[in-house]
Amino acid sequence: MSRFAKEFFLGAATAAHQVEGNNTNSDCWAQEQMPHSTYKEKSGIACDHYNRYAEDIRLMKEAGLNAYRFSIEWARVQPEEGVFDEEQIEHYRQVIRCCREMGIEPVVTLFHFSSPVWIIRKGGWEAETVVEDFAQYVAHVIKALGSELNYVCTINEANMGLQVAAISRRYTLMAKKAAEAAAGNGGGEVQMGLNMQAMMENMRFQAMENAEIFGTPQPHCFNLGGSEHSDLLTMKCHQAARKVIKELYPEIRVGLTLSLHDLQPVPGGEERAEAVWAEEFTHYLPYIKDDDFLGVQNYTRTLVGAEDDLPVPEGAERTQMGYEYYPQALEHVIRAVARDFKGDLMVTENGVSCDEDSRRVNFIDIATDGVAHCIADGIPVKGYFYWSLMDNFEWQMGYRMRFGLIGIDRATLERKPKASLYHLGGL
To answer: For 204-234, what is each residue's pLDDT tens digit?
Structure first.
């Protein structure tokens, strides 16, 4: 049931912290170990992909996939400021070469959410120094590995800082309303029992623990949300990285990835939807206009009202993450992006968290049909990477969210390929 030409990249994606295991020098690992951590569980050995990458890449080859998007972990390569671990560079060289031996194109992401602890101690993603620090890391990696790469994503979901900040603002507003309701000063807008005192106590303890680990009660980690200033610094990091890569290896195709929603305004929500799209996408256009490609990452749609986003429609199917099951969103987002970005596009993430693999197969079919429709209309989509290759550590949600094409027995780490893996490979 071939749907794409042989030169089309059909693959799967992972992130180092979520699959490798024992990423002990990163801010995410430190956050997991805190007594009052917001993580439901610790990553630990994760999927042990660090040691079992060859087995996992072989499963992709056997299924018929021809590309693998994975990330290099900054905290492994540069565990301390000014210190580069050449053994880790060699490890990633072996991963790249393993891909080549299996006939799989490696698409490398240089930063996927987790930072070295020392970066956060310097002020993290709000500090001007992060631009030069990131450029130095990128230069070291590309000098060593650039001759073996054709495609590099500098930063995963470079717009995530603003998205997390927006979600945090909404959550804070909901919590405030709940507190007012509990005090008899408001309505019952939030239909759940909230122990506000305990939540505030937890915040206080977290501040103390952050100060001990990061040297500040409010560390500026990439995954904790950011300001307009940190958003600008992220773009400067991307531009600095692109400059370094092109100076060393002009033939490498460089881009970043963005988290993008299919924004569907209801009557009255049109103006707000346009403003959200500007924050989510169009305001980045000046910084990415010289990129070779853009990585599009989409999972669902958002119904946009005049004042706020609307809930998932009553009766609609939901994924384990609580999103609406809506694979049609990908085609809509690709078309929206292509109106303004004129370079090549790659779907660097798209997937669904569910236990019933037949629903994953259906999701893949509808999503990739949408990609094929876009290509038929002349939109230059060069690849599709399903998220994710295996059931992995879904950040603060732990191991309960199952996106994978390959199941992982948490007790033995045995790989259990699903029908969806072979179905995707057959496209």
So the answer is: 788 999 999 999 999 999 998 899 999 999 9
Please give the positions annotated as active site.
157
Where helices occur in 253-356 by DSSP H, the ranges are 270-280, 285-288, 329-338
Model pTM greater than 0.85? Answer: yes
| Residue numbers in the chain where pLDDT is lower than 50 | 181, 183-196, 198-199
| Beta carbons of 163 and 264 less than 8 angstroms apart | no
If you search the block for the tokens 């963005």, which residue do you land on? 258
Alpha-carbon separation of residue 147 from 76, 95, 253 (angstroms): 21, 14, 12
In this structure, what token pair is assigned to residue 242?
């692109």
CATH architecture entry for 9-161+222-425: Alpha-Beta Barrel (3.20)
Nearest CA among 406, 415, 353, 416 for reference residue 12: 406
Q: Is 262 exposed, middle or buried (0-12, 13-18, 19+ CB in 10 A)?
A: buried
10-47 pLDDT, tens per residue? Answer: 999 999 999 999 999 999 999 999 999 989 999 999 99
Backbone phi and psi for residue 369, each to the nearest 5 degrees, phi listed first: -60, -45
**Is-contact 10 65, C-beta < 8 A?**
yes
